[in-house]
Specification:
- The chain has helices at residues 7-28, 35-42, 46-49, 56-77, 86-101, 109-112, 114-120, 123-146, 155-170, 180-195, and strands at residues 151-153, 196-198.
- By secondary structure, the protein is mainly alpha-helical.
- It folds into two domains: 1-52, Orthogonal Bundle (Arc Repressor Mutant, subunit A); 55-202.
- The protein has a two-stranded antiparallel ribbon.
């Protein structure tokens, strides 16, 4: 049996695993990276990995949850930029965040089998990630209300739009890099109003979403 880790040591090992895993998956795709490669790059034993995660799928689920949590906190810290036009803010947010993922091999279905892996996550794991996004949206709605902007959103449709964006992004490599940005922008501009609406008289800007 390996030696017990202190809380500080556990945190450091897990940080290394996450950072190394994110970097390798981004470069080579999920299928192209083994647990052994990740642990070797971290300078830890293979057995050490299994003291934190039972398998690669659980590691991926943890990465997805942790990365989403970090990004959403950063976005919320910059929430003031949403005040002129919440719908345009959401359209641009969906677009910019989605386009960034198209450069990540981990989100390329052809290289990584991303959708198959995501569908293999436990229902609890998927719900935990979805809860992060719905919580972010609810926090933004409360923030807008505090600033005199009435925004209403339909949560189920919001999650459906996220799922559709996931399908588009993971298949971006099948389309020309010259055309995908325009296609994805059109999707974002058309989809956000499906789940989100703003009381017109309370808009602080005059630039429509579409």
């Amino acid at each position: 049996m390996g030696k017990a880790f202190s809380e500080a040591q556990r945190g450091e090992v897990q940080r290394k695993l996450r950072e190394t895993g994110l970097a390798l998956f981004r470069e080579k795709g999920i299928r192209g990276v083994s647990i052994r490669e990740i642990t070797a790059a971290c300078g830890i034993s293979l057995g050490c990995f299994y003291r934190f995660y039972p398998d690669k799928e659980h590691f991926l689920a943890d990465l997805l949850h942790t990365r989403a949590e970090e990004k959403l906190e950063l976005l919320y810290a910059n929430r003031a930029s949403s005040l002129p036009d919440p719908l345009r803010y959401l359209c641009d947010l969906f677009y910019t965040q989605g386009m960034r993922l198209t450069d990540n091999a981990a989100f390329d279905e052809m290289q990584s089998g991303t959708l198959e892996l995501l569908s293999a996550f436990s229902p609890e794991g998927r719900r935990s990630v979805q809860a992060l996004y719905t919580s972010y949206l609810q926090r933004m709605i409360s923030y807008w209300a505090e600033n005199g902007i009435s925004v209403s959103c339909h949560e189920e449709t919001f999650l459906q739009v996220l799922g559709a964006a996931e399908i588009l992004i993971t298949h971006a490599s099948l389309l020309s890099p010259d055309t995908f940005p325009a296609i994805y922008r059109a999707f974002c501009d058309a989809s956000i109003p499906l789940f989100c609406s703003v009381t017109p008289s309370q808009m602080k800007g005059d630039r429509p979403c579409i």
